[in-house]
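Appendix B. Worked example

We walk through a single record from start to finish. Start with the input: the chain for DUF599 domain-containing protein, Arabidopsis thaliana x Arabidopsis arenosa, length 246.
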Amino acid sequence: MEWKKWYLDAILVPLALMMMICYHIYLSFMVRTNPFSTLLGINSHGRRIWISAMIKDNQKTNILAVQTLRNIVMGATLMATTCVLLCAGLAAVLSSTYSIKKPLNDAVFGAHGDFAISIKYLTILTIFIFSFFFHSLSIRFLNQVAILVNIPNLDPNPSGCFFLTSEHVSEMFEKGIFLNTVGNRLFYAGFSLMLWIFGPILVFFSVLVMVLVLSHLDFVSRNNNKEKLRIVDIRRSSDCTNGGED
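Next comes the structure step. The output line below is what the pipeline stores for this chain.
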């Protein structure tokens, strides 16, 4: 009887989590091997160019750099605050005897006993705690970048002693954005797992839809990629022509 209550949860929920993990492993592989086929890789390249431009013309762009970083930090702070509120709500539900912990048996597929409900809430709570953790780390790195990006003359000296460089600032910026992205993806996963309260079938289909949507957003279509390459070739040829005329 116990297996009959748990088999949907034991099959569909791990399958949904593995689907999400495998997708992000594939996405990470594509970002490393073929970055310009993904929006993450293209945006990462653009951010490095942006950091270099902000540092080179620091006197004119320092306010723009700080305001842009402030907007990113505010977004990460909002997500971290939301995670804390959700964690507080879930903790309150776990420590209470409200009837919300015991959904109607006829309305829920899968296990819905006291132990099963506790496992569901604890899993969701853990996901949101980790999301808050990654957003907090992201805010830390981004705040450091907001300070370092306004330091003039970020270059190593001729003797070879290391000072702060624009490459170091770019690396810190990329770490902050990466941690923010991980926190956001965990937040999305947490919302899908919240449907586990009403049964594992909803979790599976929610994750399936989310993976399809993310795959559409994370990857650049072949037509768009070809168009971008064509524009780059046209610009290069025009630059060569202008250089020859000069």
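Two observations about the output. DSSP finds seven helices and no strands in the chain. Residues 58-94 form the longest helix (37 residues).
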